[in-house]
Design a protein that fits this description.
This protein is globular. A five-stranded parallel beta sheet has the order 2-3-4-5-6. Helix 8 packs across helix 9. Helix 6 links the parallel strand 4 and strand 5. Helices cover about 35% and strands about 20% of the residues. The chain is built from nine helices and nine strands. It is of the alpha/beta class and about 240 residues long.
């Protein structure tokens, strides 16, 4: 059976505490992105959550990365946390446009992460689905357990929207797939942003991912980047999937 296309990386790359563990000790920070791109084929951009991206910033990411590289971009908190999709369609459309115009064929997934106070309702789900541009690979990351239901999975599947599987201290870690693309974020567990994932945990994840026959493409991002664990775990998962029989 042909393996799915696999993109494994971290959430952000600008981490001084990765020096010696990943970045060479004497490498200037200006060269970190280039070095990162030599070792990984994807990056999840989180800066766009805090500051709405400009075309220039997206073009810079594009220009500094090699052919075939993929960026997944986290949507602005103005969309997901402030407005929560209400009355901000133009802002959503602008976000899509700046990503596509700037990143071009290197546009991977667009990640919409909702806050933990955002509880399930059929009306909220309908609004999210209506707001998304189906021409993009849209990923929804929920942070409240009320969204972990078959009804939600079925509705997302109908519209080819990706349910973000998470490994998070307060949420289910079950691998859920609602589209031909799977998207996984590993936040560190039990200590958010810090905890290391064991070889056994990563091996189990790689096997679960490769068992999903309906999945043609996989994106995995490690967000336990407040310690060196994120980049170390990403490299280990790469090896496990690459050498999986």
């Amino acid at each position: 059976m042909k393996k799915p296309s696999t993109y494994i990386g971290t959430s952000g790359f600008y981490n001084p505490h990765w020096k010696t563990i990943f970045y060479p000790e004497d490498m200037p920070a200006s060269q970190w992105l280039g070095f990162y791109c030599e070792n990984f084929n994807t990056l999840e951009i989180n800066a766009t959550f805090y500051k709405f991206p400009t075309l220039k910033s997206m073009q810079t990411w594009y220009g500094k990365s090699p052919e075939g590289f993929q960026f997944s971009v986290k949507a602005s908190k103005l969309i997901t946390h402030i407005h929560q999709f209400v009355g901000c369609q133009q802002m959503i459309d602008d976000f899509y446009a700046v990503c596509k115009d700037g990143l071009k064929e290197k546009t991977g997934c667009i990640l919409f992460q909702l806050p933990p106070t955002f509880h399930y309702s059929a009306e909220k789900l309908e609004l999210i689905i209506k707001s998304l541009n189906p021409k993009f690979k849209n990923v929804i990351e929920f942070r409240h357990i009320s969204w972990w239901t078959q009804a939600v999975y079925d509705e997302l599947k109908k519209h080819h929207i990706i349910f973000c599987t998470v490994n998070h201290p307060k949420l289910p870690t079950t691998l859920i797939t609602t589209a031909k693309t799977a998207y996984i974020r590993l936040h560190g567990n039990p200590k958010m942003f810090y905890s290391n994932y064991s070889h056994a945990e990563l091996k189990a994840l790689s096997e679960d991912l490769l068992k999903k026959k309906s999945v043609k493409e996989i994106y995995v991002y490690f967000n336990n980047t407040a310690s060196p664990s994120g980049v170390v775990n990403a490299q280990e998962l790469q090896q496990l999937i690459e050498f999986h029989p």
